[in-house]
Amino acid sequence: MNFFESQDRARRRTGLLVFLFMLAVACIIVLVYLGTTMALLMGGAQSGGGPSFWNPVLAVVVGGGTILVVGIASLVKITQLSGGGQVVAQQLGGKLVNPGSSRADDRRLLNIVEEMAIASGVPVPPVYVMDDDSINAFAAGYSPKDAVIGVTRGCIRQLNRDQLQGVIAHEYSHIFNGDMKLNIRLTGFIFGILVIGLIGRGVLHAMSRSTRRYSRRSKDEGGAQLVILVIALVLMVCGFVGTFFGRLIQAAVSRQREFLADASAVQYTRNPDGIAGALRRIGGFKDNSLSSAAAGQYMHMFFTQAISSLFATHPPLSIRIARIENQPVAFDDVPSMAHADESGIPGSRVISEIAAAGNIDAERIDQAIRIEQSIPEQVKSVAREPFGARALVHAILATGSSTGDEQIRQLRTMTDPAVMHELAKIRPLIQQMPIPLRMAALDMAIPALSMMSPQQWRTFHDNVVRMIRSDQKVELLEWVVRGSLLKNLGARLGGAVDKVKASDTLHALRKPCRSLVGTLAWAGASDEAEARSAYARAVNSLGLDPEIPDQADCTLDGLDESLDKLQQLRFKQRRALLDAATGCVEHDGRVSDVEYLLLRAIADRLDVPIPIPVPGSP
After folding, report:
1. Same domain, 146 and 10
2. Which of 42, 277, 564, 615 has its CA 20 to 30 A from that of 266?
3. Residue 198: Cβ-neighbour burial (10 angstroms; 0-12, 13-18, 19+)
4. Is 308 in the same domain as 169?
């Protein structure tokens, strides 16, 4: 699976979705017109007259009205979901799992999600649990930055660790394949189609209240009532037709993606028995339907069929299991960290990670477990609860500044005493951790930080900014930490998800591309000649001007501005840009802490999940 091609392919699949949606709307318009005309003809017959079967004005009114109603309903639904995956989880009745939970079932689930996140290079997503005995799961959001993982209580209680890991790996595949954004759009479109039937049902309900008055009305009024009754019935029929098309669209868009996600889960875990075993457990149930009333809207998002339907959104379990078990799986020896070089990160390893962006395999999961085990238990414990997670961020910022002690003194007057208490305990531990491990700990803290209220987030962010500005300069680590917080929490806690259309090319964005590569070249070079050489080598494949930008222009503020513009870059083009970026940093065969932080920040801002290896990893 190629992450960059998958992201662009997901955007192209939106075209198929729009086509099917337009086809469904066209059919509904025809049905509404025929039904309305029939109702008017019947009403006219009762009153001695009536319109002809073809009425251009009526066709325009019906067509325009249907498009308007469906369009507004779809837009309203998509707007409701603009808050990202947490909105979907809440509508399905999911409850956020406390990242610091000590319950055995919750801890097992959270550990698996953490391992997958570290292995893939994305922040740990919040986890929601639905109190349902069925076995199911979903991933929802617009991007890895606002994604959530949801599972049923039955999934946790009835699957062993390998089976649960297979299910979670399947959901991570949907995150990396760009399926989540498509799923949210699909939900909005289907709601728009179904709303016609809801209107018809509402009209019938209103008419049932006026039955007594209807019997005392004149013949003309009775004809009008008949017209309304027939139109309401037609709208209800259109609702059934809309449901038919909605389920058909769900099936057309999602069935093939389930096979891909199953195959990816096997690739990620190197254990086909895990996900196959989970599917077998589900197959043993007579009914694995969800009890949530909202399940029908989101059935295309789930691991398996969420409710019974004429058009299944998922392939039959037997076929999925057969495909999984017939898939060849290679088992390679996992290298040990015991004799690894401690002097930095091999440049070739960074290149291989970018080439494999969005892919998880058993080696990366094993490495993620080793990274997680390298983080002190006290730091992990603190990262999993809200006050401690805030203290962790402040501790990382203090270790990245030459005036850390002064920053802490100022912080005492601005933040909660509980945060300062946790900060005092973990600051010495953070200082002893390599920078990549500090950033891994920051990723682990995202779920706990996301539990803040919007007001708490604003206060916390203000304190972070004050810490950074206290010495009148911005250190690289401070810049990276704040950027990561804004990227991963700003959308969750500060407003709607930022949805930038990724459609531009490298040529159209050549100026910010040059600025980005130039900043990396100057940051990793010991002199001007080395910087120029690294830059020229990097941009050769991009067709950019080989003359490096002035060092004075390659600032963190400039990089910030460039990365904002590069959000518009197509995903396949992002691969080329990141290849050029690694060409800058691997010229000496190693990746320094400065280069590591810059690469991490660039990949993070470009929504590319790259687990930059920790020094000492193979």
Report:
1. no
2. 615
3. middle
4. yes
* pTM (2 d.p.): 0.72
For 238, the token pair is 């259109």
Same domain, 65 and 44: yes
User: Tokens 């069929």 appear where?
Assistant: 305
**Are 581 and 548 in the same domain?**
yes
Query: Please, are residues 180 and 535 in contact by the beta-carbon 8 Å criterion?
Result: no
The one-letter code for the residue type at 537 is R
pLDDT tens-digit series, residues 21-44? 788 888 888 887 887 787 777 765
- The residue type at 332: D
In this structure, the answer to whether residues 307 and 425 fall within a common structural domain is no
Residue with tokens 């399905």: 92
Q: What are phi and psi of 521, to 5 degrees?
A: -65, -45
Burial of 53 (0-12, 13-18, 19+ CB in 10 A): exposed
Q: What's the chain's length in residues?
A: 618
> In 48-152, which residue ranges form alpha helices assigned H by DSSP?
56-80, 85-91, 104-120
Contact 570, 9 (CB under 8 A): no
Give the CA distances from residue 613 to residues 176, 324, 346, 353, in Å, rounded to whole numbers and listed in that order: 19, 30, 9, 8
Cα–Cα distance between 36 and 56 in angstroms, integer?
Answer: 13
Per DSSP, 358 falls in state T
276 near 325, Cβ under 8 Å?
yes
Catalytic site positions: 171
CB of 268 within 8 A of CB of 360? yes
DSSP 374-416: HS-HHHHHHHTSHHHHHHHHHHHHHHTSTTHHHHHHHHTTTS-
Task: Give per-residue pLDDT as tens, 209-238.
Answer: 655 454 445 445 555 666 677 667 777 777
Expressed as residue numbers, the domain containing 379 is: 375-494
Q: Which residues contact 109 (CB under 8 A, 6 or more apart)?
A: 97, 127, 129, 151, 156, 164, 168
